[in-house]
Batch of 3 targets.
Target 1
Amino acid sequence: MLRFPALRTIACASVIAITLSGSIGTAHAQPKWRDLNHNGKMDPYEDPSANTDDRVEDLLSQMTVEEKVAALAHGNLPGLGSPFGASDQGYDMPAVATAIRDRGVTSFITRLTVPPRVFAQMNNAIQHLAENTRLGIPVTVSTDPRNQFQEVQGATNKANGFSLWPDPIGLAAIDDADLVREFGTIVRREYRAVGIHMALSPQADLTTDPRWPRIAATFGSDPARVSRLVGAEIEGLQGGAAGLQKDGVAAIVKHWVGYGTSANGFDAHNAYGSDLLLNDAELARHVSAFKGAFAAHVAGVMPTYGILKGVTIDGKPAEPVGAGFSKQVVETMLRKDQGYKGLVVSDWAIVNDCPSSCTEPTQANPQSPMAIGMPWGVEGLSKAERIGKAVMAGVDQIGGLDDPAPILAALRTGQFSQTRLDEAVRHVMRVKFMLGLFDNPYVDPDRASEVVGAAASQQLADSAQRRAITLLTDRKKVKALRPGQRVWLFGMSPQAARSAGLIPVDRPEAAEIAIIRMKTPSERLHPWHFFGGMQAEGRTDFRNGDPGFDALTAMGKDIPAYVAVDMDRPAHIANLTDRASALFAVFGASDNAVLDVMMKPKKAEGKLPFDLP
């Protein structure tokens, strides 16, 4: 454990008391400047009117090597009952205090799912801890997406009070850049209201294999559309087209580059999906999808986990290592070729070991969160050597690293230079200054309750859910559902049907029409892997044994069937088209939204954002 000198300490019990009372972050007059290093005078880095670069350089001159090294760690905020941090109770404040006071970490991902007011109070308590350290460097709080339907632990979070929108693939089905920009704006307001400053999104990844499990988080398969919509979302998140604003959220576009091209549609979170298979022409298409992010002056970039196979970079074969370790991918392709000068944050756990329970887990020895590691191509290196290789490749922060000790070991053993360390710290601190965190990192818990999930925001999100739904049947042949009709439901809420004026019945033969909602088929081909056990893999065709398909085929053919397919991946629909009177593709929508479109088919504005197999 690193021990930082001359830290002003406060008892954890005090922090918890502050959290519960909400006394931090309530509206009150702010001082003209904050004496962060507690020396009784205003240093240049504390001066709100000073130039950002001057503030960064002054802070850098006052930081110890240990404090600089700690800035390169982007840790996980521990939650009560969950070391992974996915808690509905709150942060484990003693563990948070150890990370901030003893280890000096100032960037963390949050996975809390608590009410907005409590969320704001908890994040205020974290900033209070940071304010009482030697230099008072504020904490940057990041998050995976929170405003969408798809939920995969370690990739997205439950909305839990935040406005609930279609998945990004649904926004792609609408293909309205102004709407996506407004979506980003609302997400920005909600995040900042609870004290979140960094979005580990959007994904500029191209959908290329219909079996890939991350498709719902993308804007589809057309690089021009992906580029346009990614740029619009970043403008909304960051507060404008000119780049990150003081009231903005720093966007971290991901995953640079070629993610989603692994054999068999697997995912590079897993050892069996670590190879990305593409050629130079295909790589150029994936690069072009990021152009909108660079045009919007994105604050950060996250390299992908995978190893690029079959491509050349600057006339040389790509080094067979994960993108976060590749100088060709980060320094050459990103910084040199694209002229990118901002923050680079690695994806999570790339420097961790991947033991046998990670590469070949079994039912008796499944992969746990503590055995997650993605050191693809550098498995034989030590953690310090992996860190050095990533930093020298151009990575500024190591995602998921809670303890900066191995970063210090990498520096002291010559794995990377002092010059490179200072460059990385500048990138990290510049974002904090641009966000205004040195001037006031606190938020108002009362305002958080008003802003997060506000009625006007959810109304726009509800409209987007309906607009994204795509009618796959000839519109002229689809008769709108009518209030008073008797309906047999499968996969749909009877309460939602009643709210729409429909009459649910218990048996298909008692119904005038059947309404069936089903998922795109999938398999659990790797059930003992942490991510593989949650991800949709394998086939996408409907067969006997698929619950929704069985419900459809078991009905008498005399009953019309309206079928809604949740397309987190492109589905084979050949087995549905002859039986379904109306077929709808859904990309993240409530039952109420789906039924509303079935009663008013013209609301289904969506167009397929990918080809169906």
Target 2
Amino acid sequence: MATFLYKLGRLAFRRRHFVALIWVALLTLAGVGAASAPPAGTTSFSIPGTEAQKAFDLLEERFPGQSADGATARVVFKAPSGEKMTDAGHKATVEKAVADLADGSEVASVADPYQGKAVSKDGAIAYTSVRYDVSGMELEESTKDALEDAAQQARDAGLTVEVGGDALQAVPHTGATEIIGIAVAAVVLVITFGSLVAAGLPLLTALIGVGIGVSSITALASALELGSTTSILAMMIGLAVGIDYALFIVSRYRAELAEGREREEAAGRAVGTAGSAVVFAGLTVVIALVGLAVVNIPMLTKMGIAAAATVAIAVLIALTMVPALLGYAGRRVKPTGAKGRLLGGARKKDAAKDAAKDVAKDAAKAQGGPAKANLGTRWASFVVRRPLAVLLLGVVGLGAAAIPAASLELGLPDDGSQPTSTTQRRAYDLLSEGFGPGFNGPLMVVVDAKGSEAPQQVFTDVSDEIKGLDDVVAVTPAAPNKAGDTATITVIPDSKPSSVQTEDLVHAIRDAGGAIKADTGAETLVTGSTAMNIDVSQKLNDALVPYLVLVVGLAFLLLIVVFRSILVPLKAALGFLLSVMAALGAVVAVFQWGWLSGLMGVEETGPVMSMMPIFMVGVVFGLAMDYEVFLVTRMREAYVHGEKPNQAVVTGFKHGARVVTAAAVIMMAVFAGFIGSSEAMVKMIGFGLAIAVFFDAFVVRMAIVPAVLALLGKKAWWLPKWLDRALPNVDVEGEGLRTAEERGSGPDEDRELVRT
């Protein structure tokens, strides 16, 4: 592995014009594809294998032409205090609004509240339901404008009017904080490298990689039904890993220069060593993201694959375009320890002499006494002297942060989770006020009596059975299709959609349906957005353990190959579990309990997104293994080259702590930038990933990992001999390169290897 990547790095450095041309061409091609692609159509949200999805598919088959997946809107009217919606003036206003809405070209149906008995018992509130032929994302702006105009005209007539439903659904935006995150990353890079040129390389390559990835997603969005959230998450993860991977390559390149190597040779060795770590770190992220497919929710699978593709692009760019740009940068990228102009370096035309003077100064300091140890060395030395105390403090601290996770409540967002400043939330509250909280989450019961001898009697029996259940406020008469073999029944619960009582009611209806099927052969299915949410949450919960086993198992095997150890990968996996549980605890504290919610821009607390835990597990595991690979490979490299276990830990921190710290701060800044998103899921994931990186990088990898390795000593690197012989030697530490150097092969001989 190291030898192949070494050759690739030198080839990219020497053929930089060709490499740069390829990546620019790919970026241009993706950009043209995105610009010319048709707008993204409807994003189907299906959950195969669930009862709610089966009922939805049955509706599509038995009730054709009803646009079951079309957008809906509820326009809610409230009369002024002391007046009623049945007053002649208010009734005329509502009827005019209904007539105006019915004129829309994309409108499938509009219900008259007075004919449909959609007026509250006290007469203060009424509503009309509007159904459209297309989804909320496909509605034309003129249709949305007509909806808002009708509401505004009713307001002008003296009524309080709010609009709920997904007809006003907007494309999520990330806000200015995303730019702030990139700016913070730029500042950290400048501080780390002390040079604008060196700092600009990781940013430039990351932006090119994200540009290719996101443009490709945009170009394929319509054909593959990719939602807007998919590109945002791909951008989030692609930016973070793209900057980090390039950062590690550039840092190793500068270290190789400091050892006196020529620039082409330094680029090859940087890609051969740090590049090997990048490949395996990227593989763990890709495994974790692609593994989301085991949940069998197409939307989540597409999000994972799209993000994984962006990570793969980031790896390829780090291995090829970074060394190519290093070739363009030439002497403007200085060796480690040499000051650039930004930090007060000499302003001389001859950069080679400047670098030589820096090296000479370092040699003079070495003759006068040992150089002052850097912060990473001092911290690692402290940890190996007090490993047990550091380990206990880290584990207890993460355990305390994870306590709120015990109160985790899962759910999917509805209008009730919107900020109170939105018309959707106010419409939700008005409906609850006038008709009860369960009115915002009606259940649709689909009765398939095709195999029954008396379908109408079956419909009546099902309705009567449901009326006798607890937590039921109302049951509408069965509405059969034209064939008379299938009917829909709307059930209004007494509790709000996200409550445990409503979930129990769904299960009770399904249990009753099982008894009816045994007696009549008719099948009773429950669907609707509330039932869909319940089924999604259950499906995600059921998939969490198999997903963990698959992803952690594959990554564990991969890390055994990388580190040639059993205990180091095991320690890495256990450390990940600590950091992800602590991060979930922080998410619960902020988004469910409301701690620091004002600071995070969380206007409304509620259940944590159902897909948040499993998505977070996948992404955080991949990112956690990034730091494990980058930091521990330097320790492994030192150990393989003859250092004692504790000294190898200190050496690994000496060379890697500064860079890993910078990488973690950059990744936190990029993820935190998405907290400003208008999409609740993106906001939550941005915060969760940022805090997870903090816990994992600074507590687990920087404290718990060296403490455990210090306690284990040589046992940390133990591997059964039979397994050592069976495993392929991927040479992440670059031992093959060192061996070649010891044989005396110089740059000219290595160049011959590249040509052959």
Target 3
Amino acid sequence: MQFIPKTIPEMQPEIISVKESPPELVTFDVGGMKCAGCAKAVERQLMQYSGVISACVNLAVEVATVECEPGTVDAEALAKKLTDNGFPSQSRSGENQWEAEATTIERRRQEIRQQIKQLTIALILIILSGLGHVLGTKAPILSNIWFHWGLATLALLLPGRPIIVDGCRSLWRNAPNMNTLVALGAVTAYTASNAALLFPRMGWECFFDEPVMLLGFILLGKTLEQQARRRAASALQALIALQPAKARLVDFKLSSLDLRSQELPLNSTSEVYDPQYIEIPADRVRVGEWLQVLPGEKIPVDGEICEGKTTIDESMLTGESMPVLKQPGDTVAAGTINKSGAVVMRATRTGKETTVAQMVALVQAAQTRKAPIQNLADTVAGYFVYGVMGISVLTFLFWYFAGTHIWPSVLLGHGAMDMGHGAMNMGNELPIIHYQSPLLLSLKLAIAVLVIACPCALGLATPTAILVGSGIGAERGLLIRGGDVLERVHQLDTVVFDKTGTLTTGNLTLTDYLPIFQNSEWDLNSDINVGNRQDACSTIDGVSGNSQDACSTIDGVSGNSQDACSTIDSKLLQIAAAVERGACHPIAAAILLEAQQQGLPLLAAEDFCTEPGFGVSALVEGRRVFAGNAEWMKQQGVAVATELSGSLQGKTAVYVASGGVLLGVIGLKDTLRPDAKAAVERLRGMGLRVMMLTGDTASAAAVTAQQLDLTAADVLAEVRPEGKARAIAALQAQGCKVAVVGDGINDAPALAQADVGIGLHCGTDVAVETAQIVLMRNALMDVVESIELGRATFNKIRQNLFWAFGYNTLGIPVAAGILLPATGILLSPAAAGAFMAFSSVSVVTNSLLLRRGFRA
């Protein structure tokens, strides 16, 4: 089949306005949030502050990210405002990241320990209350009404006190939360039981066991939820723990460095005993300093090996379990583990610039960015508690004034799901009680409505799934920047790959030299010590169509066909290498490497100028030389013969010209990545259309496309960097949801234009910064895995939101007594509290199940 790749027509350059300074981002650790209502209240308070553009609060990790106008927001003042309003906060700006995270982790551990203590007390009270009902007259003390009054009182004063206090404060601040609902339910039940106890003539029954069981179930659910959330965040905490605390600084001026030197003897100082090294905090290391790393130690900062040889475990950064050999000249990343040999390294990136620090920042940012699907839940959460309180009041009014009169049978007995243990009277026994009071039945139903509603499930649905998904990605070297990216990943239908350096290795090799040198001012008679090459002559034969004429022309120059070919070939390579020295591109690297391997000295060159997508020019020995593609030559007024282009079919051609005359052409060829074909096939199997986008020639693109079984319609060739963004925009205009995979500066516009940009970490910094998904490993199969992870995580978000909305939609009417007239089913306040407590646990647990599909 003949490939005719599409080309993007040239367009006039657009006028781009100068952008204003980017917004400033400030991050806070926020405590005191109990449910989605609290998170929404924090967002409202942040948005009220002058200079704040937007605010995003994550309930699962208790972090707030504020986008504000540069220089307009005082982070400490904003943190104090939140603290004064009941949400203890601390700004992360200017702090050591490791210390700040360690403080946060320790605070959460203390909270969990405190919750466990409260839960233990609550469980003891529940056991004592239950024994009273089970043993009955066999244990008069345990069944005494005053004993149960004491249990209820202790439940409110000890484990329930923080809940009641926080609920009341939140209500006072006009920001009611889950604790407000629980506090209202428990205190109302306790008050009604006290009224029945003190005024027995009213004929009410006591249900002191309800607040005891209600608070116990709530505390059990909160403790399990906290443990699950801590487990969900374990991957990020492990990533943060990678950052070493110490570094061993050595003197680079020493002529001999003892790599076997390890620990100092006791009672000695490094300065006196061994001047070769001194330990300093890792965050104090400066770029350019030399560090010694012993076997078993972590690499303290990003750097380059200077002395020694070792293997490095990079599994936490890349997910690759096999150690990687490192020797002088190789780069190493902070947090990776030195496995075998002692080495000396030079620091190249420190502090927040290291790879692991950037990974932590990306994961933390991902965990604070919401998916658009969460917007509905956030809107509901903002008014949820008010709505539940209103429904509770309506429930009470309906049953007291109408329901008990319409269905008087509801006053005659317990419902099937009434988990109350019966009422308590002034005697020593706890008899089975039948409802006789419309007021008390209405009150119980109103309390059940209060405590069954769960704003937590709404608030945790999205962040816990993102927390687990981003953690799995971090463990595997897949960095997804946020919930909004996950939603776009789920919508993808097209994946566009850059060719050079992405689908191919990017390690170009020279295959052809075609020197022309006709009518050129360059001196071809210079003596250059080069090897003997015959392929230049044979290739020229193919271009000129006359072997004898071609060789005779060259013979006339040097007097010897073979030597002349070798000399001219090397002269062409020498000129091209001098020009390409000013470029940072795989083509330039290949030409310079070939010149180095042939031992050719570089010619003097200056005044380099690069035209992205076309080529590079420079002054070489006083002459302006251009090296680039055929279009670049055309713009410089240099004619390129059609036969010349045809002889390099399927290869990348670099034309070299000076003074309007073509000096020659160099052919290069790239090879596919080993996993490129498998990755393309997997993506197709997922229902995605796979395309290739390249600035290379149509013939070179066609060769790669054939190897990948891509059709001509799926190949866009000869596209300049700015044209790549237009090509992606054209696909989007057709209704496609596009992901772009790239690694170079030329890919940055397309990555930014795409619905999802996927950048290889081995590529340029600008590509990594532009991409929404960063792949730490140099593997295309990670593109497949990142999309699969994104889809699975988004599905968990949808499941969680469905459960959260479904639970509240069904649970509140049942608690309000909708099933009571027909079936006799009645939820007691304790049973409603149990359902509420475990609803949020189920959401977090469902998020944790995401790991089952991504086991190593």
